Amino acid sequence: MARKAGTAKRDRRAQGGAGTPATVALTGAGVPFTVHSYAHDPAAPSYGEEAAAALGMEPERVFKTLLAEVDGALTVAVVPVSGSLDLKSLAAAAGGKRAVMADPAAAERATGYVLGGISPLGQRRRLRTVVDVSAESFETVCVSAGRRGLEVELAPAALVGLVDGVLAPIARA
């Protein structure tokens, strides 16, 4: 895989260390994963697209973590950075009727992460999680490792299993 200058790739399991709550959760579960880091540009208009470009990966394989309220309950949606979240589809997948994007402060409080670095893994509170079904198209996908400029690459089945999530078509191109 081609990598741009300033990008690092590390196998976190081989290195040990505390890491972020996401990498700690992955290590504790014994799941194979790779950490990718890159220099984050705070002026980047899209953190997810910035990550895909910095890592030299197709945007369909890099996923962003969004929080929404489905019938008033916080719900995690994991969708490709190349698309957007279909709130109606998320509500249906979560067994609800209506979904709206969550208040950013509520998202940060519930997950323990800051916007642009919210990981679906290792969140402060376990929330209902829906991963877009397109993740199954890839051997591995990337999601935030819990900090801007840090991604973890892992198998989609491992991601869904660790968050006790479900796969559903929740993304729009």
Structure description:
The chain is of the alpha+beta class. The chain has six helices and eleven strands. The chain has helices at residues 12-15, 21-29, 47-55, 87-93, 104-111, 156-162, and strands at 8-10, 34-37, 63-70, 73-80, 84-85, 99-101, 128-132, 141-147, 150-154, 166-168, 171-172. A hairpin with a 2-residue loop joins strand 8 and strand 9 (150-154). The longest helix has 9 residues, at 21-29.
How would you briefly describe this protein structure?
With 173 residues, the chain is α+β, with helices and mostly antiparallel strands. The protein has helices at 12-15, 21-29, 47-55, 87-93, 104-111, 156-162; strands at 8-10, 34-37, 63-70, 73-80, 84-85, 99-101, 128-132, 141-147, 150-154, 166-168, 171-172. The chain has six helices and eleven strands.
Outline the secondary-structure elements.
Layout: E1 8-10, H1 12-15, H2 21-29, E2 34-37, H3 47-55, E3 63-70, E4 73-80, E5 84-85, H4 87-93, E6 99-101, H5 104-111, E7 128-132, E8 141-147, E9 150-154, H6 156-162, E10 166-168, E11 171-172
Parallel strand pairs: 4-7, 7-10
Antiparallel strand pairs: 1-2, 2-9, 3-4, 3-6, 5-11, 8-9
Q: Tags for this entry?
A:
173 residues; 5-stranded mixed beta sheet; 4-stranded antiparallel beta sheet; 6 helices; 11 strands; 25% helix; disordered N terminus
Oligomer: single chain
- Poorly predicted regions are 1-17
- List the helices and strands in order: EHHEHEEEHEHEEEHEE
Q: Pairing-aware structural class of the strands and helices?
A: alpha+beta
Portion of residues in helices? Answer: 25-40%
Shape: globular
First-last Cα distance? 25 Å
Compute the gyration radius: what is it? 15 Å
Number of helices: 6
Number of strands: 11
Average pLDDT, rounded to a whole number, is 89
